[in-house]
Amino acid sequence: MNKKRIWMLVLVVFVLFLIARACSVAADKKQADSSKTASGDAASVSGVTGEVPWDYQVREAKVGDLLDGDMVLLPNNERISNDQNFATGEQIWVLSSIQATMKADSQGKNDVTLSQWKPIKTFKTKEEADKDLAELKVEIKTEVKLVGVYKTELDGKFRYFAVVELPTGQKVKQPIPEERYTDFKSKKDVQVILEEVHDYSNYDQSMAKFRGWAE
Fold it and tell me: Distance (Å, rounded) from C-alpha 101 to C-alpha 99?
């Protein structure tokens, strides 16, 4: 009887050992899989993040009130430094900027939040303003990586798309005609037209924006 109980006890201990070992292996595998997934997600995130220059514009404005070395621009009541000693009632030209805050999700898609237009510099003439604008927004032709092309179908109708990776890292999807889809299927790089938007206070920082195909 005692011998039978001993064997039963040994059997129970052995079964508990096997169960504990199986749970440990499963936990290790789950942890490894989680690490692999997190690493994969991090690697797939691409594009620009943070605050970047988005666009500039030149417009005419009228000088309103003068306030402690600043002036108010009409009609939008924007306040800016009066560096050139403009007088109330003068018609001037204003360079304004808009910034974008970009956040990338786990699929690499950017969520873009745009700021309000903000005046950053004033000029006596439009020619002076346009000269600054031409240096901040530069259009270039360059070669970029073609990530791939694909098509979708809805109710028997097809739509075609190309995805390219810009020099700044973000991926851009563009609709294309069927002819370009066929032409791009065998390519790894394509020629595009980009607009480089440079930061006014830090010219080396720029945002590349897709402006069309160059082929």
Answer: 7
- Measured CA to CA, the distance from residue 99 to residue 45 in angstroms comes to 22
Between the two ends of the chain, the Cα-to-Cα distance in Å is 91
DSSP string, 164-179: EE-TTS-EEEEEE-HH
Distance of alpha carbon 201 from the chain centroid: 20
> What is the per-residue pLDDT for 91?
97
Q: Which of 212, 168, 191 is nearest to 54 (CA)?
A: 168
Nearest alpha carbon to residue 166 among 132, 206, 117: 206
Beta-bridge mates of residue 86:
none
Q: For residue 109, how far is the Cα from the chain centroid?
A: 7
Asked if residue 196 lies in contact with residue 207, where contact means CB atoms within 8 angstroms, the answer is yes
**For residue 164, which of 181, 180, 149 has the smallest C-alpha distance?**
149
- Tell me which residue has tokens 């092309």: 149
Take residue 47 and report the two structure tokens written for it.
Answer: 């594009």
d(CA 185, CA 46): 23
Which residues sit opposite 82 in a β-bridge? Answer: none
pTM above 0.70, yes or no: no
State mean pLDDT over 69-95: 96
Distance, in Å, from the CA atom of 95 to the CA atom of 127, rounded to the nearest integer, reads 12
Q: How many residues does the chain have?
A: 215
